[in-house]
Design a protein that fits this description.
Number of strands: 12
CATH class: Alpha Beta
Number of helices: 5
EC number: 3.1.11.2
CATH architecture: 4-Layer Sandwich
CATH superfamily: Endonuclease/exonuclease/phosphatase
Radius of gyration: 17 Å
Order of helices and strands: EHEHEEEEEHEHEHEEE
Largest sheet: 6 strands, mixed
Mean pLDDT: 96
Low-confidence stretches: none
Keywords: Hydrolase
CATH topology: Deoxyribonuclease I, Chain A
Strand order of the largest sheet: 3-4-2-1-12-11
Strand content: 25-35%
Structural class: alpha+beta
Protein name: Exodeoxyribonuclease-3
Helix content: 10-25%
Amino acid sequence: MNNLKIATFNVNGMRARLPNLLAWLAREQPDIACLQELKSVDGAFPAAELEAAGYGAIWQGQAAWNGVAILARDAQPLERRRGLPGDDSDTHSRYIEAAVHGVLVGCLYLPNGNPQPGPKFDYKLAWFERLISYAKDLQGSDHPVVLAGDYNVVPTDMDIYNPRSWLKDALLQPESRACYQRLLDQGWIDSLRHLYPQERIYTFWDYFRQHWQKNSGLRIDHLLLNQAARPYLQEAGVDAWVRNESHASDHAPTWIRLGSRKRR
C-alpha cells in the first residue's frame, strides 16, 4: 500500500453520468473507485472509455436498476466475489469484491428500503443482516479491507441537515441505524467520522427544494476499514464539486487516503 486514494461514488446512471465520471477521474485520479447504481446491463458498461482513461474494471450490471463496479487506476481488479451469500434467490446486483493495489475492497449498494414499513424495508433489513454476517470474517482479516459504498443509512442526526422532515424515511429508521452500528461494533471504522468526529459532512443532496444550493445534505456514502487497515488512514473527504456539475448525480464522490506509513 502506497498512498492510495480509495473512493466511492453512486453515479446514478452510468451512461447518463459518464462525462461527469470521466471528468472526476481525470481531475482527482483515485487509485480505486467503487461505483453504484450503474442502471445498465453488463454489455452496456463503458469498459473501453474507462480503459482509455487509465482504469481497469470489474462490474455487475442490472437493467434499469442497481449495479456495482470497482475501477483500478493502471491495474486490473482481481475479482473475489459478486453477490452476498445467504440468499440464492436474490438477483439484485448490489455487491462486488476485488483485490487491488494490496487492499481487499468490497463495493456495495445497500437497499434503500422505501417505502417503510413494507416489503422493501424488510428486504433492506434482510440484506443488511447478510452483510453483517459476511463482514465479520472480513473485519477479522490480517489483510487491509475496505467496505465502500452507498449504505443508504444516515448513522446519526449529525449526518443530516435536519432529521425532522425525514423521520419516516427508511434511511433514518432505528432498525437501519442499529444494523449500521452492529457493523461498527464488529470493529469496523467509519473513516470520515473517525477523522472528523464533530464536523457535519454530507455526501448526498437530493434534487428537490434546492437542497444542493442550501447544503441540505445527508451522509449515506461510507468507507469502513477493518482493524488491519485502520492504522494507514491518513485523510478523508468529499469531492463536492462533482455535485455542482451539469447533469450531476445526487451523490458526490467520497474518499479516503491510505498511507504507506502507519499513523502514530
